[in-house]
């Protein structure tokens, strides 16, 4: 599974996967462990990785949600369409019930 950084993700979505492969990505930062905030502003989890489709286009994020100190947490797949980047964090308008209905990721 390839990991895609936030700036690279934006570039891929704007110009296509072929153009992004020629970009020097050494100065880009990782989205690994970036916070994901819920509609009430509370932290619901952290991004663990970005999932790409067969053409290399990022389509979803694996979010580690719930639990305490990694006990009882689960990795769920959240569509990138349901995530917004703002003020250094990701946020979603998905409710707790909607998040519970999302597919789990088992790496």
From TrEMBL:
Residue ranges annotated for the PRC-barrel domain, each copy included: 27-81
Highest taxon above the source species: Bacteria
InterPro entries: PRC-brl_dom, PRC_barrel-like_sf
Annotated keywords: Signal
Origin organism lineage: Bacteria, Pseudomonadati, Pseudomonadota, Alphaproteobacteria, Rhodobacterales
Signal sequence coordinates: 1-19
Organism: Salipiger bermudensis (strain DSM 26914 / JCM 13377 / KCTC 12554 / HTCC2601) (Pelagibaca bermudensis)
Coiled coil: none
Protein's recorded name: PRC-barrel domain-containing protein
């Amino acid at each position: 599974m390839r990991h895609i950084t936030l700036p690279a993700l934006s570039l891929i979505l704007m110009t296509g996967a072929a153009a992004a492969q020629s970009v020097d990505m050494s100065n880009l930062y990782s989205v690994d462990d970036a916070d994901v905030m819920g509609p009430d502003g509370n932290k619901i989890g952290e991004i663990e990785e970005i999932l790409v489709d067969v053409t290399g286009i990022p389509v979803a994020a694996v979010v580690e949600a719930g639990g305490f100190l990694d006990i009882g947490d689960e990795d769920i797949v959240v569509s990138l369409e349901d995530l917004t980047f703002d003020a250094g964090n990701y946020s979603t308008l998905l409710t707790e019930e909607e998040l519970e209905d999302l597919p789990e990721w088992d790496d």
